[in-house]
Design brief:
globular; 403 residues; antiporter activity; Na+/H+ antiporter like fold; 18 helices; mainly alpha; Cation/H_exchanger_TM
């Protein structure tokens, strides 16, 4: 990395910090500010961050940030706490995930046929693009949900179920995404699907979880008797970077393996609070740079031509989640307020979706990957603007806000 790349990284971290603060001042999540900072510095406007730098020189930042995100998601999957929330959480999580996947996949397939550059795309490519976006649409943004709940002081049945579903949802997303990524490799190959390509998703999921649990076990043993956050941070960061570099070479998912590390730690390590607190000092800087880089991917020419695809994602992802919540609530016979308003509560979409589309884009030709990145990030930007007030409205209608 030369001095210009180091300077660019420094500028992006500072710009992300300023963007995050400004976003908070106008009532938006920090991630929106990070994205806008990247858009400002990208080739569309200031042109300080060329696309080749985003795609190549800074690719390791993306890999490490995704592993940190996965580690944090795993940390929310505490089995005892989830069990206390009951079967309602599992039914709703299952149906809303399937709803978002199916509705979004079909909608994007139809939209690409009607509005996309379908004459330049083969059917197997369109199917693969649709499945990729559909898998990403399962994700919900926990940070946005937590921020609004904290701001409103919401407490009650609706809030508890919302938090439980959000905690499980991103874990389910990673499992679905890993399976879809393995599946589309078979779809995109000239020979198509066969027994080998159908077994690849199984290995990617089982192998990733096994590697994550092994790393977590070794970390726990290595840090026996250690309570210094600095030492714990070094081991965790080293392990996550190793996972980021190792997993692609053995056809495993780094983000799923990292989620397994976090899940193992939170359930089997007595010092789990210390293990997660130790990464706090680096998270903001890494995430700021990561989401600024994601914003720098934006190409206004692409977005202006295919903005309607962003709206398709926005609308049909919500419809899928709302339909899934209705089914899950009906099966589990839960509170009527949950059936009415939880779909909107699961509307926020941000960090995990952006991280996954940056991974998913790598499975396609470069121009197709850029198209996917632009209309997914476009939908996330729309989402980040409208979802916080909608979530606040839901919490108010559920009668659970205290301020």
């Amino acid at each position: 990395m030369d001095i210009s790349l180091l300077a660019t990284a420094g500028i992006m971290i500072l710009a992300a910090y300023i963007g995050g603060r400004l976003a908070n001042l106008i009532g938006l999540p920090r991630i929106s500010g990070y994205l806008f900072a990247g858009i400002l510095l990208g080739e569309n406007l200031a042109n300080l961050v060329p696309k080749h730098a985003v795609a190549v020189e800074f690719s390791w930042i993306t890999s490490v940030a995704l592993c940190i995100i996965g580690y944090g998601i795993g940390g929310s999957l505490e089995f005892k706490r989830l069990a206390r929330l009951g079967s309602t959480i599992f039914w709703i999580t299952f149906f809303q995930a399937i709803g978002a996947l199916v509705f979004s996949t079909i909608a994007i397939y139809v939209a690409l046929r009607l509005f996309g550059p379908s004459e330049m795309l083969m059917t197997n490519t369109i199917i693969s693009m649709s499945l990729t976006v559909g898998a990403i649409c399962v994700a919900t943004a926990p940070s946005s949900v937590l921020a609004v709940i904290s701001e409103t002081g919401a407490r009650g049945v609706y809030t508890d179920i919302l938090l439980g579903v959000v905690a499980l949802d991103d874990g389910v997303t990673l499992l679905i995404f890993a399976a879809v990524m393995a599946l589309i490799q078979g779809i995109l190959r000239p020979e198509g699907l066969n027994l080998h390509t159908l077994l690849v998703p199984l290995w990617e999921i089982v192998g990733s979880i096994s590697i994550g649990c092994l790393f977590a076990f070794l970390m726990s043993k290595l840090l026996t008797g250690i309570y210094e956050e600095g030492a714990i941070l070094k081991v965790i960061l080293g392990a996550l970077i190793l996972i980021a570099g190792l997993c692609p070479h053995i056809h495993c998912s780094p983000i799923l393996a990292s989620m397994s590390v976090g899940c193992f730690i939170v359930n089997y390590e007595k010092r789990h609070n210390l293990f997660f607190q130790s990464t706090d000092p680096i998270e903001n800087a890494v995430f700021g740079l990561f989401f600024a880089l994601a914003g720098a991917h934006m190409d206004f020419r692409v977005l202006s031509s295919f903005w309607h695809l962003s709206l398709v994602i926005l609308v049909f992802r919500f419809l899928g989640k709302q339909f899934g919540v209705f089914l899950g609530s009906s099966v589990s016979k839960t509170d009527e307020r949950v059936k009415k308003y939880l779909g909107i509560g699961l509307f926020p979409q941000a960090g995990v979706s952006i991280g996954l589309i940056l991974v998913g884009a790598q499975y396609f030709d470069r121009w197709i990957g850029e198209l996917l990145i632009n209309f997914v990030i476009g939908s996330v930007i729309f989402n980040e603007i409208i979802s916080p007030p909608l979530l606040k409205w839901c919490l108010t209608k559920a009668g659970e806000t205290t301020r």
